[in-house]
Design goal:
Blueprint lengths: L1 E12 L2 E13 L3 E6 L6 H8 L7 E6 L2 E2 L5 H11 E4 L11 H11 L4 H14 L15 H14 L4 E5 L7 H14 L4 E5 L3 H7 L2 E6 L2 E5 L21 H13 L2 H11 L1 H27 L5 E4 L1 E5 L1 H16 L19 E5 L4 H8 L6 E8 L5 E5 L2 E5 L21 E2 L3 E2 L6 H6 E6 L7 E6 L7 H5 L13 H4 L3 E5 L1 H4 E3 L5 E3 L3 H5 L4 E12 L11 E3 L2 H11 L3 H8 L12 H10 L8 E6 L5 H12 L11 E2 H45 L1 H9 L4 H42 L9 H28 L2 H6 L2
Parallel strand pairs: 3-8, 3-9, 6-7, 7-8, 20-24
Antiparallel strand pairs: 1-2, 1-4, 4-5, 9-10, 11-26, 11-27, 12-13, 14-17, 14-18, 14-26, 15-16, 15-21, 19-24, 20-25, 21-24, 22-23
Helix pairs in contact: 3-4, 3-5, 4-5, 5-6, 8-24, 9-24, 10-22, 10-24, 10-25, 19-20, 22-23, 22-24, 22-25, 24-25
Bound molecules: adenosine-5'-diphosphate and magnesium ion (MG).
Adenosine-5'-diphosphate binds next to β1, β2 and α1.
Organism: Clostridium bornimense
Membrane topology: Multi-pass membrane protein
GO molecular function: ATP binding; ATP hydrolysis activity; transmembrane transporter activity
Length: about 775
């Protein structure tokens, strides 16, 4: 059934070539016990390894059941070893970290036999060698003879046709040797047994046939077979180890060195810990920043101003250049004795927004679900008087220092009317009610009701009080009661301004007459309010605040006044008689109340989430407009959040880069550990190969090992990082009063686990490839 035809094999080490087999030809019967005798170094083992497919012959042929093996592929050799051959070695070659029964099952494990059949066959084989009671012992708990019985059981378990034994009793005492020989003799009744021995007596006593080797040649054969017997075409079942088997094998191996594996996993998890902690910190800070932004910045309006300013692209670019120079430390100075001129105003691009009635209509039609209030600023000014005791005084609602700007009422554009935003749903008071607590009096009910806004310490600018005509000398506070109910008279332009003979206008000084005119409106300070606790920041300055309806009323009353008509027709300032250009003139008309167009519009989004929708609503308007007609808006909160977000991102990237270095270090470490493991498990590699494991299976075993290390280091790292967030949060809370900053994002955790696993697998890849490439014979010989 087995034929060697002129097989030659030599080994070359350096420039010395040793001929191990020098044209060996042999024919084996289906059932016989062949002993190969010969002095040490005569080529016996080499011959056996060639027969077993463990070593490749250089020339000649090995014919198995009539089939030449000249063209055998790797996988055919693997199957041959797995299915047709059982090896018994002098040094037993059991896998130390597996128990007896698993050792016996290994060959069947490699060929993918179901675990039930496998167990049954293994037990049968162990029973046959008389070891049924020791199946869960480890090899090192057995005597030499017992270990050899396990090896015999392993060789028999898969029911091969050929048993190859290389000096099976070489390491055993005489008594045990006899027992083992009896066992082998028994087996040879149904199989072809080829046994190498240097003990001629044993050979004489047990073997059917003795072949003697000398210097790689056969010198005698006691029972040669001339013609080779033909049998049906030979077919082999492919072997394949599942990844699960590889995993189990590695897990068993790792179990024998728990301490080392734990330390390895711990060391290689340091990178993960670093990155996870940094990510959880930045994640927490990001969240905190976002929350704070939502709390505070959501209250920042989106502003559409008649004059919108943007930093030009060139200015941004030059600032960036400057920054780069500073960072690289190469801030070159100009070498010159001249002063260079540049226009700093060119850094800012001013865009004039044409806020048309159409646009105002467009804004007013915005979805009330996304914008809850809209504020307007207009250039119109109010003419106001108040009776203080017996005296009637001109007053203003502004908080500007009057002493510095004499006649601030008449200074051209300074005193625009900035009302508080009105709710888009029409209830103008609701903005105040929503955001401010009432301290005294009542919330405004009509357009003529005013409120006094104080800050969180009930303070208000002294000038705001002075401008109301209150004598503030030597007083530190005013009772709520003295303020609530205070009345002001809104004077019409026609009463307020007198025409002179030079065709100009002048504020009248007859306050008594103005105050008692029929054409006045009485305004009342109805209440004092303060910002609510849960509102992040005050949006309106402290002082007197009024609704936009009042502004509209002022403009309605002023529109047809004499001074407005006169200013519209004149090409000079109707108060000072200075000649003016078109723009200044329009501003003057607006100042006197002749233009209802707001100077600026402020949109207050319902919440942070709706802001994007508001922005896209504004962008929609610009869609098909020329650049001149586009309406440019300012989103201050975006500018702020871009800045803060950017800072966090920058810091995070730098820190993660640092931590990533340790991840690379751990990658290298895993590579080294796997490499050491390959060296340690060389023998196991040889055994597995002898049992029919493919190269692929060996790679799998080591990949499984790195998989276990990678997965456990990842899980360990994430767990430790997660545990670390607890003390970190405690410390941060003590330092900053911010609660639970460090929060590990589950997505980050999973990503880190995968990255770590991938890197570890890469680190173990090269050593595991090396392991697979090992020559099985040499692997077996290693200790
Ligand atoms: P035996 O088993 O009869 O003692 P071997 O078959 O092991 O002899 O060896 C036959 C010859 O081949 C010896 O001279 C040995 O040194 C040489 N040899 C065997 N294996 C190798 C090898 N891997 N590399 C170099 N020489 C080898
Ligand atoms: Mg030998």
């Amino acid at each position: 059934m087995l034929t060697l035809k002129n097989v030659k094999k030599s080994y070359t080490t350096g420039d010395f070539t040793q001929v191990a087999l020098d044209g060996v030809s042999l024919n084996f019967r289906e059932n016989e016990f062949v002993a190969i005798l010969g002095p040490s170094g005569s080529g016996k083992t080499t011959c056996l390894n060639v027969i077993g497919g463990l070593d490749k012959y250089d020339s000649g042929d090995l014919i198995i059941n009539g089939k030449s093996t000249k063209e055998f592929s790797d996988s055919e050799w693997d199957s041959y070893r797995n299915n047709s051959v059982g090896f018994i070695f002098q040094s037993y070659n059991l896998i130390g970290h597996l128990d007896i029964v698993s050792n016996v099952e290994m060959g069947m494990t490699l060929s993918g036999i179901s675990s039930k059949i496998k167990r049954q066959k293994a037990l049968e084989a162990l029973e046959r060698v008389g070891l049924k009671n020791h199946i869960h012992k480890k090899p090192n708990q057995l005597s030499g003879g017992q270990m050899q019985r396990v090896a015999i059981a392993r060789a028999l378990a898969n029911d091969p046709e050929i048993i190859l034994a290389d000096e099976p009793t070489g390491a055993l005492d005489t008594k045990t040797s006899v027992q083992i020989m009896e066992l082998i003799k028994e087996i040879s009744k149904e199989k072809l047994v080829i046994m190498v021995t240097h003990n001629p007596e044993l050979a004489e006593d047990y073997a059917d046939r003795i072949v003697e080797f000398r210097d790689g040649n056969i010198v005698s054969d006691s029972n040669p077979l001339k013609s080779e017997t033909k049998k049906e075409e030979y077919s082999l079942k492919k072997t394949s180890m599942s990844f699960f088997t590889a995993l189990k094998l590695s897990a068993m191996n790792i179990k024998t060195k728990k301490g080392r594996t734990f330390l390895t996993a711990l060391a290689s998890s340091i990178g993960i810990i670093g990155i996870a902690v940094i990510l959880s910190l930045s994640n927490g800070f990001d969240k905190k920043i976002a929350e704070t932004q939502e709390d505070t910045l959501s209250e920042y309006p989106i502003t559409i101003s008649r004059q919108a300013q943007e930093i030009s692209k060139e200015a941004i670019e030059s600032r960036r250049e400057e920054m780069k120079k500073k960072l690289s430390g190469s801030s070159e100075k100009v070498d010159s004795d001249e002063v260079y001129l540049y226009d700093s105003s060119e850094d800012m691009i001013t865009h004039t927004n044409n806020i048309s009635d159409d646009y105002i209509e467009y804004i007013k039609n915005i979805d009330p679900e996304i914008v809850d209030s809209i504020g307007y600023t207009r250039i119109a000014s109010m003419n106001l008087l108040r009776k203080v005791g017996d005296e009637i005084k001109p007053i203003t609602f502004s908080a500007d220092d009057k002493s510095n700007s004499n006649s601030s009422q008449h200074s051209q554009m300074s005193s625009g009317l900035a009302s508080y935003p009105s709710s888009i749903k029409g209830d103008s008071a609701s903005f105040i009610e929503k955001n401010y607590d009432l301290l005294e009096g009542e919330y405004p009910k009509s357009e003529t009701d005013l409120v006094l806004i104080v800050d969180s310490d009930n303070r208000v600018d002294v000038n705001a009080m002075k401008n109301l005509g209150i004598d503030t000398t030597d007083i530190e506070s005013i009772k709520f009661k003295d303020l609530v109910g205070m009345e002001f008279k809104l004077i019409s332009n026609n009463d307020y301004y007198e025409k002179t003979q030079f065709n100009t206008y002048m504020p009248s000084s007859d306050y008594e007459k103005m105050y008692n005119s029929n054409d006045t409106v009485t305004l009342t300070l109805s209440g004092i309010v303060r910002i609510k606790d849960d509102v992040g920041m005050s949006l309106i300055n402290e002082g007197i605040a009024y609704s936009d309806d009042l502004t509209e009323l002022v403009i309605e009353r002023a529109k047809e006044s004499d001074i407005v008509k006169a200013q519209k027709d004149a090409d000079y300032n109707v108060i000072t008689r200075e000649s003016v250009d078109e723009e200044t003139k329009n501003n003057l008309v607006a100042h006197f109340g002749g233009d209802a167009t707001p100077y600026a519009i402020m949109l207050y989004p319902t919440s942070f989430e709706e802001k994007d929708q508001v922005i896209s609503y504004l962008d929609d308007y610009n869609e098909d407009k020329s650049s001149e007609d586009k309406i440019v808006y300012t989103d201050l909160s975006k500018t702020i959040s871009d800045m803060t977000g950017g800072i966090m991102d920058g810091i995070t990237i730098v820190l993660v880069a640092f931590a990533a270095t340790s991840l690379v270090v751990s990658l290298i470490m895993v590579g080294i550990i796997t490499y050491i493991s390959v060296l340690e498990r060389t023998k196991e590699i040889g055994i597995l190969r002898a049992l029919g494991a493919r190269k692929k299976d060996i790679t799998r075993v080591f990949n499984a090992e790195t998989f276990i290390i990678g997965a456990s280091s990842g899980i360990l790292g994430i767990s430790i990082a997660w545990l670390l967030t607890i003390p970190i949060n405690n410390i941060l809370y003590k330092m900053t009063d911010l609660e639970s900053i460090a929060k590990l994002n589950p997505v980050h955790a999973v990503a880190l686990l995968l990255i770590n696993l991938t890197l570890t697998m890469i680190g173990g890849w090269i050593p595991s490839k090396m392991a697979a490439r090992k020559n099985p014979v040499e692997a077996l010989r290693s200790e």
